[in-house]
Amino acid sequence: MNNFYDVIIVGGGIIGSSVAYQQSKQGKKVVILEKGKPGCEASSAAAGMLGAQAEIDESDSLLKLALKSRSMFPVLIKELEELTGVHTGLINKGMLKVAESTGDVENLKTQVDYHTGWDPEVTWLTQGELLKQESALSHNLAGGMFIPNDGQVMAPQLSQAFLQGAAAYGADIFEYSEVEDVLYKGQRINGVKTSQGNFYAETVVITNGAWAGKLIKKTGISLDIIPVKGECFSVIPLKPLIRSTVFSDKGCYIVPKKDGRLIVGATSYLNSFDKSVSLEGISRLLEKAISLIPDIQYAKWEKAWAGIRPQSGDGLPYIGPHPECRGLFIAAGHYRNGILLSPITGKMISDMIDNQATGEELKLYESFKIDRKTATTSQEGYR
Length: 383
Hints:
It is a single chain. By secondary structure, the protein is α+β, with helices and mostly antiparallel strands. The protein folds into 2 domains: 7-50 and 156-223 and 314-376, FAD/NAD(P)-binding domain (3-Layer(bba) Sandwich), CATH 3.50.50; 92-149 and 227-312, D-Amino Acid Oxidase, subunit A, domain 2 (D-Amino Acid Oxidase, Chain A, domain 2). 31% of the residues lie in helices and 27% in strands. Helix 1 packs parallel to helix 6. It is globular, with a radius of gyration of 21 Å. The two termini are 26 Å apart.
């Protein structure tokens, strides 16, 4: 086995495969090392929302990054689908962030005012306007914020498109190859130790999601990335119920997929790697979904599942070079925005590796650097 590469990607989820796609397009010899099946952790569990404005209303830097990433999807999806033949189910029917009571109205109207500064198409809908646009919604809703440019994709298919795209440009993909440690040559990365032997490269990118913290700690720093379990379920309605994704700040979203399914999510359990599905969690989601769309109770049950999302302490992903070890990069902690941020993260890391990022981009990227205040020195380090 030839185990010498230009770039090693640790983790075969959507973030790692996006980086691999960008680097292999540049003619680099790239390998993806995945502890299980590529794309089968958080990337396959996600509902696929591109909720740049529905979910982000407090961090200007994260919103700017999300909007930049969202704008990349149409061209990138076309490119990937033509290259791989994998259809990712991109839908741009907008998103409705609903007010469930009169008390929610003022808060959402404030969010509308904030987001129109970025996107003048964002509008407030009264109860009547909301029901006119989506007649299956509950008449108990008090109105909603319509975000026409927040779309969605089928997350597992997008992950596979990135993987197959990287492979089409020559990347190697090794499954069931868990990275156990990193290898150094002085203060420069030299490769990784895996359950299948050593792999060598002068560039290594750690992208293994909720499992990244354990590996990063071996490099001399600790990043506050924790696992957050999220449960979802899907149903098949007797007839189409909604066109736009429906999003509630009270712990529920309903996403209409291109194949007719509705995906409902998601619960949130901190510090849990347990992927079992609980009756308690699903029953809460069922109750919430029915309160938003009453006729969803007549839909045909399909399945339920859980995924493990990587959350950082300040809610921002870590994207950039290791502060001490040359050639080592990190892209982890994307939490609920991994699908949305996958295009820009792949570009960011690829540009940083090749020193291609512009001054304006580097200024934006400052908020996501590894050695911001949430990073601390670990007891482990170069050996």
